[in-house]
Amino acid sequence: MKVDDIRRSYTKDKLDLDKLNEDPISQFEGWLKDAIAAELPDPTAMCVASVDEHGQPSQRLVLLKDVSTEGFTFYTNLGSRKASELSANPKVCLHFPWHPLERQVIVYGTAERVPSSQVMKYFLSRPKESQLAAWASEQSRPVSTRQALMQKFAEIKHKFEHGEVPLPSFWGGFLVKPHKIEFWQGGEHRLHDRFMYNKQSDNSWNIDRLCP
Ligand SMILES: Cc1cc2nc3c(=O)[nH]c(=O)nc-3n(C[C@H](O)[C@H](O)[C@H](O)COP(=O)(O)O)c2cc1C
Questions:
Q1: SS3 69
Q2: Strands 45-51 and 57-63
Q3: Closest ligand 1 atom number to CA of residue 85
Q4: CB of 42 closer than 6 A to ligand 1?
């Protein structure tokens, strides 16, 4: 397989300082709206990068469940690798890979746990099967066979047959509070447009154009 001549030109759009919103969250919401309108698969999927105690980074996709001036929220199993790593080292990087639109957004921030009232509200809004799956999966830990996983799911399904599925104590969310956000728009001849927002001590945002 030959991969070195796979390339394309980026010509869909241009980004300039006078087109940018001075607030990066408003800018992000505009781009998210574009990704949804363009019917990208999983437009809310974002890659979350964390680092372990040896400095080894790891990353995975999760779904964005809320964005506000506070930051970016996702939900997960608190025993998972990402949750353990973020609990020990809350420095985190998010990546939105909207490359069909020739765009990407990169968020640098700090992760903190979402309050349990908010986790509960979100958990109750999920389909029942997803709630049961959260109970059945010891996320990121080895499981002998798929059959063993399905057996556990069947047991949980039976256990919570009637009434509401309770929130597992090992399930929760993280709010990523940003201090830097980059917006990238692909440009002709690889001369892409990149703008980095940096949060200032008075909570305003400074914007720099970066070389591509
Ligand atoms: C499109 C997509 C969306 C996903 N959304 C979530 C999510 O919201 N929460 C989650 O815990 N895992 C989600 N996953 C699974 C994660 O990528 C990952 O496999 C899992 O969380 C375990 O990660 P870890 O072992 O690195 O902690 C998603 C996977 C994909 C491909």
A1: coil
A2: antiparallel
A3: 27
A4: yes
Q: How sure is the predictor about 200, in pLDDT bands with cuts at 50, 70 and 90?
A: very high
Q: Pick the residue whose CA is nearest to atom 6 on ligand 1.
A: 62
Is 72:107 a contact under the CB 8 Å cutoff?
Answer: yes
Distance 6 CA to ligand 1 centre (A): 29
Type of residue numbered 37: A
Burial 78-101 (b: 16+ CB within 10 A, else e): bebbbbebbeeebebbbbbbbeeb
Closest CA to 212 of 189, 193, 188, 185: 193
Shortest-distance atom of ligand 1 to CA 82:
27
Q: Is the pTM of this model over 0.90?
A: yes
Instruction: Provide the 3-class DSSP secondary structure of residue 81.
Output: helix
Closest C-alpha residue for ligand 1 atom 28: 62
pLDDT for position 150: 98
Q: Give the SS3 label for residue 112.
A: strand
Does residue 190 have an active-site annotation?
yes
- For 167, the enclosing helix (H) or strand (E) is none
Average pLDDT, the chain: 98
Domains of the chain by start residue, with CATH? 9-115+171-210 (2.30.110.10)
Q: Which of 91, 80, 78 is nearest to 50 (CA)?
A: 91
